[in-house]
């Protein structure tokens, strides 16, 4: 496949994700600056990789909190805030496999057979952080999912949090897959030599 064909596939992927609302104008601007060498490629890759690392870390921390024998609602809310802060422009797609939700184990019970207690304030803070970091990469749907998550925080139930986190996980998976695909395709273009 030629560099021009790969470039056309990249442009098609970005256009479709923009049309879906997965990414916003900020992502388009970031990509265009990279593409036309107004900023160095390494900087854009660093921004994308940092977002992916931060978001993955936050989602892992939420999973750990939701699996604790005692659910501390305040901690969960706090982590949710961090997640929202990390991704405020939101990214994601609803078609992503719900298997991402497998990180959470709602069937976990305490020794007394009661539902575990989760620190929901910490989860909420992490979601807030994710929302903020997603804005840095133009991940629009993820940010919106983080905002929707905040509505479930008032219920203070583990089931409510799990339901609210499913779209966040889906949107993160979609954005991560898109970013990684673009990076891989850009490497293919670079390997083909001189620019089109």
UniProtKB/TrEMBL annotation:
Q: Which UniProt keywords apply?
A: Cytokinin signaling pathway, Two-component regulatory system
In terms of superkingdom, the source organism counts as Eukaryota
MF annotations from Gene Ontology: histidine phosphotransfer kinase activity; protein histidine kinase binding
Q: Name one GO biological process term.
A: phosphorelay signal transduction system
List the Gene3D superfamilies hit by this protein, alphabetically: HPT domain
> Which InterPro entries does the UniProt record give?
AHP1-5/YPD1, HPT_dom_sf
Question: Where is it chiefly localized?
Answer: cytoplasm
Q: Which GO terms describe its cellular component?
A: cytosol; nucleus
Q: Does the keyword Electron transport apply?
A: no
Does tRNA-binding count among this protein's keywords?
A: no
Which locations, inside or outside the cell, does it occupy?
Answer: Cytoplasm, Cytosol; Nucleus
Q: What SUPFAM superfamilies does this protein's entry cite?
A: Histidine-containing phosphotransfer domain, HPT domain
| Described purpose of this protein according to its UniProt entry | Functions as a two-component phosphorelay mediators between cytokinin sensor histidine kinases and response regulators (B-type ARRs). Plays an important role in propagating cytokinin signal transduction.
The record comments on the domains as follows: Histidine-containing phosphotransfer domain (HPt) contains an active histidine that mediates the phosphotransfer.
Q: What is this protein called?
A: Histidine-containing phosphotransfer protein
Which organism was this protein described from? Aegilops tauschii subsp. strangulata
Its lineage reads:
Eukaryota, Viridiplantae, Streptophyta, Embryophyta, Tracheophyta
């Amino acid at each position: 496949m030629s560099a021009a064909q790969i470039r056309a596939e990249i442009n098609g992927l970005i256009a479709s994700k923009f049309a879906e609302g997965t990414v916003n104008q900020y992502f388009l601007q970031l990509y265009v600056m990279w593409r036309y060498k107004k900023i160095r490629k390494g900087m854009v890759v660093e921004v994308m990789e940092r977002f992916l690392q931060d978001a993955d870390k936050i989602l892992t921390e939420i999973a750990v909190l939701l699996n604790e024998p005692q659910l501390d609602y305040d901690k969960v809310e706090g982590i949710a805030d961090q997640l929202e802060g990390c991704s405020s422009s939101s990214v994601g797609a609803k078609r992503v496999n719900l298997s991402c939700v497998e990180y959470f184990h709602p069937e976990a019970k305490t020794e007394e057979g009661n539902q575990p207690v989760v620190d929901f304030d910490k989860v909420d803070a992490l979601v807030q952080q994710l929302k903020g970091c997603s804005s840095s990469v133009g991940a629009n749907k993820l940010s919106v999912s983080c905002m929707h998550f905040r509505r479930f925080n008032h219920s203070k139930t583990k089931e409510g949090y799990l339901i609210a986190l499913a779209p966040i996980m889906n949107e993160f998976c979609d954005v991560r897959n898109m970013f990684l695909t673009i990076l891989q395709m850009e490497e293919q273009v670079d390997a083909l030599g001189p620019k089109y």
